[in-house]
Amino acid sequence: MAISAAKAGFSVTAIDAFGDRDLRAVADVIVARGRHGSRYSPVQAAALAASVSADLVAYTSSFENYPAAVLELSNGRQLLGNPPRVLERVRNPLELSRVLRRHALPAPLSRKSAPAEAGDSSVRWLLKSRRSGGGNGVQAWRPGTQVPRGRYLQERISGTPGSLIMACNGKSAVVLGLTRQLVGEPELGARDFQYCGSLLLRCAGPAFPCQDELFRRCGDLANVVAGEFELVGLNGIDFIADQNSPYLIEVNPRFSASMELVQRAQGISMFDVHFEACHGRLPLITPPTPKTYGKAIVFARRSVTVPPASLWEAVDLADLPHPGERIEKGHPICTVFAEAQTPQRCREQLLERAAAVYRCVERRLKRAS
């Protein structure tokens, strides 16, 4: 988001958990924690922001789960994004489910307590955190166990994971892109329900069943959610595609990870789109591109030390760590990008480039040992 804001001509100060090299190239950076420091939190970032002189403020993951931090962040500044009262509603899974069902839109069942033993045993449940993000901490619920405080149950829907990217003005929405999510890919060091990348679909080969009909229904879904919750700016919706129906899993009411793919495909600043939408001005629907654009997050399969930059930047990368930096197992190393004529080939290229990153950083580990 900071890079996109700089592209749009803004002078940027970024409060960030990593302080990667490509971020430092475009912004003044305040690192809220190092890779070995205390756990990063939006509360901590908002406190650090108090000393920053700025007219505007915007946030990304996972501020949507901390409305009080958003309130503090926006003190004395113009907020570009959804205010706390909107976040409190749209991030309530029970409220979200009620709204969708009132509009006869498909939605998984949600509940805050374990079902009675005499309930429908055919429903499979996932145990999720109310402060969810990136699929972390999601697990299958075991019947007969309690639902801890701060967590809830959501019906597990079989299908293909995806997300839609939309610009909203508080009343309606324009869908800017539809993505096929990469989740739990072992070739990327991810597991279970962990988000690890996206494929932006335009008019290339299908990545969902009944893809044309799915596009249409996603437009209907976007307008209902934008209007009911008064969303502004750029927002995302995670869904599971069951044939041609998008089952909404959660709303990401802020700038999200897949949006930089639209920027790459269209050659625009998505932060500029966000700024305009927050002021009520929605973009025109852009014509589809003939390619699929993809990104993948490469997670460390073991603890590694980042090699000199000249040894490992032969592929299209972002979120660049510093040479000599220690990255622990399970933490992100970097992001790789690809573009291809079909979703399948784009995914293959992403895995090939991730493998090149692993060869470089893990080969250095072997030499050091």
Please estimate the helix content: 25-40%
CATH fold field value of the largest domain:
D-amino Acid Aminotransferase, Chain A, domain 1
Report the order of strands and helices. Answer: HEHEHEHEHHEEEEEEEHEEHHEEEEEH
Strands ordered across the widest β-sheet: 13-12-9-10-11-14-18-16
Helical segment count? 10
Oligomer: single chain
Shape: globular
Which CATH class of the largest domain is shown? Alpha Beta
Largest sheet: 8 strands, antiparallel
- Average predicted confidence as pLDDT: 90
Q: What percentage of amino acids are in beta strands? A: 25-35%
Q: How far from one another are the termini? A: 38 Å
Poorly predicted tracts of residues: none
What is the CATH superfamily of the largest domain?
ATP-grasp fold, B domain
| Protein structure class | alpha+beta
- CA radius of gyration is 20 Å
Number of strands: 18
What's the architecture of the largest domain, going by CATH?
2-Layer Sandwich
How many domains, as an integer? 3
